[in-house]
Amino acid sequence: MTPVSRSLAALAGAAVLATALPLLSTSVADAAPEKSFHRLATYPVFQNVPPGTPASAATVAEISAVSDDGRTLVYTDALGKRIGFLDISDPSNPRGEGSLSLEELGDADDQPTSVSIVGKYVLVVVDTSASFTEPSGRLDVVRLSDGVRVRSIDLAGQPDSIAFDAKKSVAAIAIENQRDEDFTPAGRAKGDLPQAPGGFVQLLDLEGGPADWSLRRVDLDADTLAAAGIAEPTDPEPEYVSINSKGTLAVTLQENNGIVLIDTATGRITKAFSAGSVDLTGIDAKKDGRISLTDSLPSVVREPDAIAWIGDDHLATANEGDWKGGSRGWTVFDTDGEVVWDAGNTFERLAVKHGLYNDDRAAKKGSEPEGLAVAEFDGTPYAFVGSERSNFVAVYDVSDPAKPEFVQVMPTTNGPEGLLPIPSRGLFAVSSETDDASVSVRATVGLYAWKPGKAAFPSIVSDEKDGAPIGWQALGALSADPKDAKTLWTAADTVVKNGTLYRVDVSASPARITESVAVTDGGAPAALDIEGLFKRPQGGFWLASEGATGPANALVRTDDAGAVQERVSLPADITAKLGKWGLEGVTATTDADGEHVWFALQRPLTGEDVARIGRYDVADQTFHWFGYELESPLRGSGDWVGLSEITAIDADTFAVIERDKLNGPAARNKRIYTVTIPKDSAEELPVLQKRLAIDVLPHLRETQGWTQEKLEGFTIAADGSLYGITDNDGLKDATGETVFLRLGKAADAFGQELATTTGLRLSASRAEYAQRITATVSVGGAASGAVELREGAKVVARARVTAGKATVALPRLTVGRHSLTARFTGSALAAGSTSTPVSVTVVKASSRTSLAVKATVKRAKPVKVVATVRAAGHQPTGKVRFMAGSKVLKTVRLTDGKAVATVKLRSSQWIRAVYLGSAQTKGSGSTRKAVTVRR
């Protein structure tokens, strides 16, 4: 590409950056997709090492391939000098099927660099170089079924990657002949190019059986490369290969920032071009403990690593960079070498939004996109871009290569290198190459399924502010907002250089960081290691700042804006015995004696065998101490156990996080216990009794990822919802994944501590039907909430509890014996309870019947008689008989308490009305009335 063309490419990159920015919008990222990639399993490959190999031995999973049936995955293990086999028939439970040592096939120093599978054969690309100046390599053809090598082919140089065409009739192998970073070429800088011998490409024709396969060497012509503007055409350094359906091979020349296209049928170069550069803005380019997306880097060369075709007319590159560049994103080119889209700063901002940004790499290559793959799932093409340093894979819909649409982020373990789509089974595999047993960072193979629903990750993200996502890391402290059940507060530890608080909205999933608040002291940023946080109902915060030394530990009170108002040092006799594990968690309670600040010391003081919980009484500035007995660590593992949080449940009951130092499959103790402070104790350091309330380990395992070590934050929201969070350590010796946990309700988890008693008293144990009966309910242990009056499963009345009491008038009960209970339904910090049954017997109500009739009537003429029946509290129903002596004149049903009839009398009579009664009301009779009959 000419210099003019390179300038146009850079301008195109800047133009597409503007169109890329909206892809980070909440509406796109948080929309519930019909399908997404769900993590199924994370398999640590150290579990698949040969018998007798220590579990602590270095072992990695770098590049992977899958069998035609999608059920056997093969990965390269360069550190172990072997390839490993996994049975992924059940992708949620992958099983190790052993490994094949390259030492058995060649030499103890042989290293696999790539692997692929064609039919029943595994093709292993092996680096056998004696030195940088004597590069060599081979291709081993191994039967998949039994691991037996059937052929070995000399590659005449040091290989890197391998790729097949769509029909698996041709394989392309990049022969890199990589540079020596410690060598100084004549007239050049250390590690610079050129360094002979130069690399090339091998094409392997796969006609017939392995014995018939043949190589064709394709030299990358220096004149052609020079004409394309490649900086060092005699030393092309081919890195990654990909072939489209037309048989066109694309090769990245990473150190030379170039791309070459080759016709695999003829071996002829059809195009070579520079990958160009990008003017990066709105990034973090300083390793300073701050995620500040305000830096710029001009003319950053892309230096692409992985490359993949999008259809036959576009190429996508992951611009990892090497020694001169790395544009922190990925790019789509057309086959003329023109940029049609560039991620600009958006890939890095995905890392920031998801809490995965690695500030240790800010001054170098940032999130360092390295791996890239393209595949169709359900007919839609997706690009998968892996971040080597931020441990994630970003997924994009590339239906329109000029307008990729961000879909989701998949979390990985450290150093995701091999990205392997398995569309035939709706799966995606990631092999991660970083392994360091000393800090429990282990290489893994992760498996993800393309299936309906929204993926569980992320559980927490940040909103944008001033056009950029809020930077966040290492969230270890957690506190509820006392005035808003949907708001929490959290804080970063020293991974973020100066103390920073974050407001979290938990009204939806994922939770959202909506605001950051800088902690200041005298107007200047405060360098605090915030390990505990409490939002005060009175306003402001209490912070627990852990120091590098004992005396540096302090309780800090701020106002709502984060300005320090007060610092409280721990007593000298305590700090003298306090090592680097100090304050971990803070909470506060307030009673008639004032405010009390409670805090936890992570591990026992020197010379003690129990940890401590402390109380600082603000009114008189005194400290009081209580012992906490920790569970035993795993012997011989470098494990320790300590406290990581304290949260007030009520005035004298607290929840604490107790955790071990282990992670991954070794993790054992991630628990929340409760303790109750004794009212009075003569002991100098009373040891508290603890009760297991929540075993959080199963919740962490449910992510199907690498089980996180640092469960450090826990709180109870104003509505009683329970939340926890893991500290991702800013990706330092950690995967970087933050797990925000929703752990149910306080009344369920702390039922014993929040137990209540409910009593029921009725105003009468015997009553007539419809007589008013008042129920008085008293609830011990709860000031407010709701109660239900029940007869069996039926709710007969409801009422609100105020100051521990509720009074309710019962509805009319049917005649008979009733057994009633009162059920307190619970509240945010009170468990439900039920009273003992109380009985009431309801008898029929008394009635009164009166009769109205004329005193004188004419013989044989109709006479109207009216009976009125009354009863207390209700209107009687039933029938009334009108009687003349013993003779029944008429029987009439009551309507609205009255019975009306027409009778004929032939002689004077004594008339009366008799109410016959009902199921609820006793019968009654009127007084007799004399009726005189005249002719």
TrEMBL record:
Alphabetical list of InterPro entries matching this protein: Big_3_5, Ig-like_fold, Mesenchyme-surface_protein, Phytase-like_dom, Quino_amine_DH_bsu
UniProt KW keywords: Signal
Superkingdom of origin: Bacteria
Keyword flag Transit peptide: no
GO BP term (any one): carbohydrate metabolic process
UniProt entry tagged with the keyword Signal: yes
Residues covered by the Phytase-like domain: 471-729
Domain Bacterial Ig-like residue range list: 763-842, 853-933
Residues making up the signal peptide according to the UniProt record: 1-31
Name of the protein this chain belongs to: Ig-like domain (Group 3)
Organism: Aeromicrobium choanae
